[in-house]
Write a structure and sequence with these properties.
2 strands, mainly alpha, two-stranded antiparallel sheet, 13 helices
């Protein structure tokens, strides 16, 4: 019998390559950062809604872009980014840190999750300033944090429903909001939705705080045109198209974005295909 080769078969080799490329996008491999290992002592149980939603790479990327575009329509959130962030020069680094926070608080050991939350709270306490009209702002404002949270939660869930599980039961969707509320409350957000109806109500209430601005449009253009290091340009274009398609019409108008027409169909098909491939690669 010939000796067994240690070389993986072509399918396994491709799977390992895909996993490696994705992990390189979301982890600072140059500094030795490793993916967050799922813990049995996390804030949330295995196979619970928040862990299912946040485990899907493509859904989180599409939802993350949508959420960020909506967040930048809030003048306080936008000004905090403009005054206290190197977003323009290090967009990938900021997005990577956000993804790391979500991964640790969703899948990591509960002690590590709370450390991450405390760290973010310390950072937010230093983010203060003044809007162009003279209004003071702070990143610890509960109402601003509520907007950041509700659009993030809605966006992640919307992308998951569109690309992964359209028939996700309503009670599981409501449980997703209840679970995500644990993190939002620890960050100081108020009000925080506990189900789909409350999320819609809070969204409608906080929408009155939004403002269109050249700066918000600039950030939107930056998010939609730049791509993460190591990711093909076509991937960012497809993800961005899907995120824009999922935006409410009023938000597209405020950001100067057009609803994708027939071009959205290939983008949606490509996103679905990427999602299926990556779920196979990570064997979810």
């Amino acid at each position: 019998m010939p000796p067994r080769s240690n070389t993986p078969n072509p399918a396994e080799f491709l799977r390992q390559q895909l996993v490696g490329r994705v992990r390189a996008v979301f982890n600072d491999v140059d500094s030795g950062q490793q993916p967050v290992p799922p813990s049995d002592n996390a804030l949330f149980e295995k196979n619970s809604p928040i862990r299912m939603v946040h485990a899907d790479v493509v859904g989180m990327m599409v939802g993350g872009i949508r959420g960020l575009l909506l967040q930048m329509l809030h003048p306080h959130a936008l000004q905090g980014v403009l005054d206290h962030s190197n977003f323009r020069s290090d967009m990938h680094g900021r997005l990577r840190r956000t993804a790391r926070f979500i991964a640790v608080t969703t899948f990591g050991h509960r002690d590590e999750a709370m450390k991450q939350i405390e760290r973010v709270n310390r950072i937010h306490a230093k983010v203060t300033g003044t809007l162009p009209d003279g209004t003071a702002y702070t990143a610890t404002d509960p109402r601003t944090l509520a907007w950041v949270h509700v659009v993030e939660a809605q966006s992640f869930l919307a992308a998951y429903l569109r690309h992964v599980q359209p028939d996700m039961p309503g009670h599981e969707q409501d449980e997703y909001y209840r679970q995500f509320a644990v993190i939002a409350r620890a960050l100081g957000a108020d009000p925080v939705p506990l189900d789909r109806n409350e999320a819609e109500a809070i969204f409608r209430e906080l929408r009155q705080d939004l403002r269109a601005s050249p700066e918000a449009r600039e950030i939107a253009d930056l998010v939609l045109t730049q791509r993460p290091e190591g990711a093909p340009a076509a991937v960012q274009a497809v993800m961005g198209s899907e995120a824009v398609a999922l935006l409410p019409a009023f938000a597209r108008s405020m950001l100067g974005l057009e609803r994708p027409g027939l071009a959205a169909l290939p983008a949606r098909a490509a996103t679905w295909g990427m999602g299926k491939t990556l779920r196979w690669a990570f064997r979810q």
